[in-house]
Amino acid sequence: MQTDDPSAPPALELSGVTKSFGPVTALRSANLRVETGSIHALVGENGAGKSTLVKIVAGLYRRDGGALALDGAPVDFHSTAESKAAGIAVIYQEPTLFPDLSVTENIFMGRQPTGRFGRIDRRAMRQEAQAIFARLGVRLDPDRPTDGLSIADQQIIEIAKAISLDARVLVMDEPTAALSGIEVDRLFAVARGLRDEGRALVFISHRFDEVFDLCDTVTVMRDGAYVDTLPVAGTTVDELVRMMVGRDVAELFPKLPAEVGDDVLVVEGLTQPGVFHDVSFTVRAGEIVGLAGLVGAGRSEVARAVFGVDPYESGSVRVDGEPLPRGNPRASIARGLALVPEDRRRQGLVLDQTVARNVTLAIRERLARWGLVWDGLENAAARTWASRLEVKTAALDAETGTLSGGNQQKVVLGKWLASDPRVLIVDEPTRGIDVGTKAEVHRLLSRLAQQGVAILMISSELPEVLGMADRVLVMREGRLTGELDRADATPEAVMRAATTEEAVR
Questions:
Q1: Mind listing the pLDDT tens digit for each residue in 296-305?
Q2: Which of 49, 52, 453, 471 is most buried by a 10 A CB count?
């Protein structure tokens, strides 16, 4: 637990740190004091400067001004290697793994143990990887390649990598974004154990229930500047929201009334052996259908199969009564389907292309004049959605890969909303998005439903599902195990369908 010696220096301290990128100021005055043996939350909207601060601590960026200290001693990192050598480990929101290497090789990349004659001791690596996974309470084959692993499993590998470093300061940047409730509980148990061993943890999350469940202290940032630091036990969600956004967010789930019409999307008997089996459901015009379940239940795979990205062996998909060709995303787009994927970086964006180019990817044929897409038309179309979703970027011609994770998610949403979809499939639509924008995304989904769009929403956040869905479908191990009307969709009913053999209707 937190040190009892008030004179002891903090494990990590940043004072008045500033950082600019050309004309854009990312940090105006950042302060953070993290005590040894504590878990310290860092919260703020996307663009508040949290990621920039973390990258300074990690040695990716050098600060322009201010001070950085570890255990009271000033430090100035010139590289990530220097930061790691000083005892800092960072778990980023997006996994950064080598897909062709094994799980074990990813954990020990760049610091493989050696045996006789300087050869890599693969046996020792494997044994330590297994020990870390046992400590985390997860089953993961240390010999399998990481390519094809779910985001949840990739995140577990990143956590194992950080734990293997035996770091004194551990920074977790949205580590639970793609984890199920059970996996989050495991992670929190490990975090508390590290805290009790005397390590300092920085926990960045947009999920307030996690902040209040796990953390001892919370620091709030807004617009690149420090706002306040408070004991978690002495504050409330409303108070944090006010400090983060500078205003009250009265309603996080602004569910607007919508007239539900005829069936638009009809899925019957969809089956892909080993992935999902006999999945049947409908989504009607003006309806938001939530698809819930634990990570690995097959929700994303069903969505990708419906859209035509992944294969299925049998079953059918119909839109407005007409069969939809399988395995043909182009035909799906032409019929008015849109898919906002779970993994925005690998499946939703071209990171080295501009914001404007990414927003208009799905509508380029509409924008073309004599076979060419003029910059003016592209920028005008992109500006509409960048403004509506409040994408924080220096310019529309900035590379999308330079944006924060939450702003990248907004660009993916903008890309598909620009296509004016008939059916919108959104997989984790607010993953990594701050509380203020999260409410706006929910309001946007409600408005689309009011306009007659049929929406299938996949989310691991149960409050989001219960707050936005007209009906809730629940999956477990590749099968639909529950269908609940909004009035009957309680947390208990959803979790029962997600975790037991019993079907809930």
A1: 789 999 999 9
A2: 49
Sheet holding 288-292: strands in order across?
Answer: 337-340, 423-427, 454-458, 288-292, 471-476, 479-485
Least-confidence region, from 94-103, 134-143, 217-226, 391-400:
391-400
Residue closest to 20 by CA, chosen among 12, 11, 29: 29
The tally of CA atoms less than 13 A away on the side-chain side of residue 192 is: 12
Q: Do 55 and 177 fall into the same domain? A: yes
383 & 453 share domain: no
Query: At 466, is the secondary structure helix, strand, or coil?
Result: helix
Pick the closest to residue 423 from 190, 210, 209, 262 (CA basis). 262
pTM above 0.90, yes or no: no
Chain mean pLDDT for the chain: 86
Packing angle of the helix pair 122-136, 151-164 (nearest 10 deg): 110
- 275 and 290 share one domain: yes
Q: Residue 276, Cβ neighbours under 10 Å: how many?
A: 23
Cα torsion for 309, 357, 49, 214, to the nearest 10°?
Answer: -10
Cα gap 198→373, rounded to integer Å: 58
Domain match, 50 and 179 both: yes
**Is residue 395 located within the same domain as residue 432?**
no
Report the C-alpha gap between 157 and 154 in whole angstroms.
Answer: 5
| Domain carrying residue 395 | 348-407
**Distance, CA of 162 to CA of 106 (rounded, Å):** 11
Q: Which amino acid is at 203?
A: F
Q: Is the pLDDT of residue 72 over 80?
A: yes
Query: Backbone phi, then psi, for 14, in 5-degree steps?
Result: -120, 135
Residue with tokens 């108070």: 239
* Domain assignment of residue 447, yes or no: yes
Same domain, yes or no: 116 and 211: yes
Buried b (16+ CB within 10 A) or exposed e, 388-413: ebebbbeebeeebeebbbbbbbbbbb
For residue 257, the tally of other CB atoms under 10 A from its CB is: 8
Neighbour tally for 155: CB within 10 Å: 27
